[in-house]
Amino acid sequence: MKKVIVIFCMNILIISIFLGNIVTGNNSIEFFSSQIGNENVIIVPISSPSINIKSNDINEIHQIFNTVSSDDFKLHNKYENSKVKSLHQSRETYDFVIITTEELSDAITSSDFIDWKTRIGYSVKIVLKTDTEITSQSGKDLSERIRNFLREYNSIWGIQYVLIVGDYQTIPMRYCYPDPTNHYNGSGSPGTGGEIPTDYYYADLTASDADSWDSDGDGYYGEYGHDNPDFEAEVYVGRLPTSISSRITYALDKTVIFEKNTGIWKDTVLHAGAFYYFTNEDNSGNPAMDAARALNIIEQDLMGGLTITHFSEQEGLEKSAYNWSALNQNAFIGAWRDGTFGIVNWGSHAYMNRAARKVWDWDDGDGVPESHEIIWPDFITDHSNLDDDYPSIVFAVGCLIGTPEKNAYGNLGIDLVTKPDYGSAVTIISSTRTPYGALNWMPESGGAESISYEFNRFMINDSKPVGEALYNSKYYCTENYGWNLWYEYNNLYIFNLYGDPSLVREGIYVSPHPDLECEGSLSWSKVSPRATITGSFTVKNIGDSKSLLNWTIESYPSWGLWTLTPLNGQNLTPEDGPVTVHVEVTAPEDKNSKFEGEIKVVNSNDSTDFDIIRVYLKTPKNKAFNINPFIRCLERYQHLFPILRYLLRL
User: Fold this and answer.
1) pLDDT tens, residue by residue, 295-330
2) What is residue 30's predicted lDDT score, i.e. its pLDDT?
3) 356 touches 376 (CB < 8 A)
4) Are 287 and 256 in the same domain?
5) How far from 256 is each of 112, 118, 407, 499, 500, CA to CA, in Å?
6) Residues 472, 597: one domain?
7) Is residue 87 part of a domain?
8) Pairing, β 289-290 against β 307-312
9) E strands within 313-360?
């Protein structure tokens, strides 16, 4: 029988699978035995820095193991369906839906995001939370109405990706309670309660709330053993977790720049692995848990051919077994800022505004790493000196990094995606609360690091967009590595995607796209009949750099005699600047008339790309000197003076 050690985090506690005890201070704590499949499991936390074991936590876990029946530990039945859709739906449908508010819609449309997604084949629709598609739905709150909208329109529109734009209150995340015995909402002080904010609720659309996410009807969603989400995503959901317009536009434009780039730099990787636990920490008897272990397995299994820079803990009395570069803030931040990394993975203890190393700084002589001997230097904070020249796809294992709520400390995960200049992430997958993992981890052990492993596998080996990779990895883990405990549900809820769920790591090559634009006007007044007049306008390519525009003048007014030079052009680039089209017109013979029309200039390779120059010409009633009485007389008796009539063109 294998013995695997698994990690749980609540503010601290260690559970063993074999009978024994652990000493913390003056207390001797009994270990609890449990078996999952053919494996023995120890559950311990990946939590915030400077945590302590508390006796009441042990009592709480003891109650869980003694009050939850074996039937409650069985995984729910899975609905048999396969609703994962192809990458591109018909243009008559909306396979990419953005859910936001009227106040934030301008921030979206002022970016290049929708134009770009349309160019690469998506049909994008913005749905406001006040639109009838949502307000007409049943539901006890806005979250349920949004989910019911997605359930109804998923089949009508063929929705594949959903991008929520707005913070956790503007477009609410659903608070779920995986531990059915803990309904305390500690969102005012994140990490102190049983609630977990998640967007998974909007992805699994199989059944109504009453038959899935809140099937017991108690108003506490996603309880293990009480509710029945099936976790298979019908749509892939991401979020820009800010309601600051400038940040929204910035993050969307950064996404476009990243996805347009198909450079080889995206095959470079940055890893940072800190200690979660030391060997026999606080006399636990447990082996060390080093995040570098999981990262090393990911490198060996999944990253052949990629260029990797990696850091591990090389200071203190217990050093990492992985002899990588020494992890510290200067080294890690300097590498990320000055390098070009398509992928960044890290694992550590963390908090809302920071991720920390764990260093056994000194020993009191007993050879046991103890809480008071451990220090927690940061290796990244929300004030680190980063930039956004080459933003990365980030998967961060660590407590509270993805906290959506505003708080006194900061929001590291949100800032990495949405804060201008600082935003080194194009997307980030991080935990809104505390993740659970496995000591002596292997991919089949389950937990947080298995989700990270499978995410990288789907993204790198299967070339899946990040949203698809995330939801497929979570579903794969619950299907294959499930723990049959509420900690499993916890991990499924806490890892959320901040960023575009359709983002493709490798980038998408599209031939440089020209865009025709004309400037100028042609307006003439007091033009004598049959007079010749001149004017001009310009044609330019305002499309992608180095794109080639072939253009032609498709039509011009039928009145008058027109000469346009040139009539067309080839291979005009944005760098060439504008081309001037010279216009010469002989006015019609009609006096006291207005002539209007347009010149249509068309992209020869794309008839939908054209521009219009409006044309206006007016001839006077008579010539300026025809007010002279002599001229009026000649006009009246012109048959008597044919030569004068000819000379004066009367």
Assistant:
1) 999 999 999 999 999 999 999 999 999 999 999 999
2) 32
3) yes
4) yes
5) 7, 12, 30, 11, 10
6) no
7) no
8) unpaired
9) 325-326, 343-347, 349-351, 354-356, 359-360
